[in-house]
Amino acid sequence: MGRTLLMSAALSLALVVTVGARPDDKAAEKLVGTWKVTSAEKDGKAETSADVKGKEVRITKDTITCSKDGKTDMACTYTVDTSSKPWRITMKCTEGDHKGRKLEGIARLEGDTLTLCHARPDGDAPRDFKTKTGQCCITLERAKR
Question: How far is CA 121 from CA 12, 83, 97, 104, 110, in A?
């Protein structure tokens, strides 16, 4: 369950930066960094604090890597369309259980809090920041330097 959640988190992040991101897109640039998973929901149910403890997501300008306790669970490339509200995200998994699959989702960035919600591979992207069957949503806080 924990690995799936971490992979979902990574995929969600990947979705955030992939669709329509431009090198000069200041909003998408704010996603770059290291993020700690603070909460998660899957299939309409909240994950426990034990499930999210030790999970981290690192975002570069073109990749998202999810790990737990320093071990990589998932990686993907991504794009984000920051012109839509909420942002539209598309991720393509390069490592992990969903390797080679595409994830669609939404994201919002409020200060140092990033919320990402996405469908499982080949599913329909969520329309809001609550999950239904086949969807995952994570909340991340920017890691302190």
Answer: 11, 24, 10, 8, 26
Structure-block tokens of residue 140: 């991340």
| CB 136, CB 8: distance < 8 Å | yes
36: enclosing H helix or E strand: strand 33-42
Q: For the domain covering 2-142, report its CATH number.
A: 2.40.128.280
Local structure of 30: helix, strand or coil: coil
Q: Which two tokens stand for residue 120?
A: 């499982």
- Enumerate the domain spans of the chain: 2-142
Look-up: residue for tokens 């669709």?
19
Question: Residue 120: CB partners within 8 Å, gap ≥ 6?
Answer: 8, 98, 103, 134, 135, 136
Q: Measuring CA to CA, which residue among 45, 9, 14, 43 is closest to residue 28?
A: 14
Closest by Cα among 89, 84, 93 to 121: 93
**pTM for the structure as a whole:** 0.80
Amino acid letter at 57? V
Measured CA to CA, the distance from residue 22 to residue 138 in angstroms comes to: 24
pLDDT tens digit string along 33-86?
Answer: 999 999 999 999 999 999 999 999 999 988 999 999 989 998 999 999 988 899
